[in-house]
């Protein structure tokens, strides 16, 4: 991890959303884009509906391992999901850093 400024894409997405992009927000956006209920989407991710709600609302932080698993299930970029997961952990710790991920 290293400190770096946000990319133009991230700044744009956060401007559109009106808030910083989080893993929960990304998951919620994907769910709504697929027009799925929380119950059906939770089943797809193999979590309880209440746990999915907590993730979407930012009340639960997802581990990097689980974030990668969610990305695989949803056919999305594991790097982006893991980066958002790690960023939430960094933010929770009160550290003023931006996480960037490069695939190995």
What does this molecule look like?
The structure is a single chain. With 104 residues, the chain is an all-alpha fold. Helices cover 61% and strands 0% of the residues.
What is the secondary structure topology, with strand pairs?
Layout: H1 8-17, H2 23-33, H3 38-45, H4 49-56, H5 64-74, H6 78-92
Helix pairs in contact: 2-4, 3-4, 5-6
Structure summary:
With 104 residues, this protein is mainly α. Helix content is 61%, strand content 0%.
CATH level-1 class = Mainly Alpha
Tell me the CATH architecture.
Orthogonal Bundle
Q: Which consecutive residue ranges, at least 5 long each, have pLDDT under 50?
A: none
In the CATH hierarchy, what is the superfamily?
lambda repressor-like DNA-binding domains
Q: Describe the biggest sheet?
A: none
Please, what is the average pLDDT? 89
What CATH calls the topology is 434 Repressor (Amino-terminal Domain)
Classify the secondary structure makeup into a structural class.
mainly alpha
| Strand residue content | under 5%
CA radius of gyration is: 13 Å
What's the shape? globular
Number of strands: 0
State the helicity in percent bands.
55-70%
The helix count comes to: 6
- As for the number of domains, it is 1
First-residue to last-residue Cα separation: 14 Å
Summarize the helix and strand pattern as letters: HHHHHH
């Amino acid at each position: 991890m290293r400190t770096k400024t946000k990319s133009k894409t991230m700044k744009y997405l956060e401007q559109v959303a009106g808030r910083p992009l989080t893993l929960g927000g990304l998951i919620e956006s994907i769910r709504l884009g697929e027009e799925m209920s929380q119950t059906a989407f939770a089943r797809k991710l193999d979590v309880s509906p209440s746990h999915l709600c907590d993730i979407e609302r930012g009340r639960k932080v997802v581990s990097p391992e689980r974030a990668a698993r969610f990305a695989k299930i949803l056919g999305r970029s594991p790097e982006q999901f893991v980066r958002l997961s790690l960023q939430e952990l960094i933010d929770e710790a009160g550290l003023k850093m931006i996480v960037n991920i490069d695939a190995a």
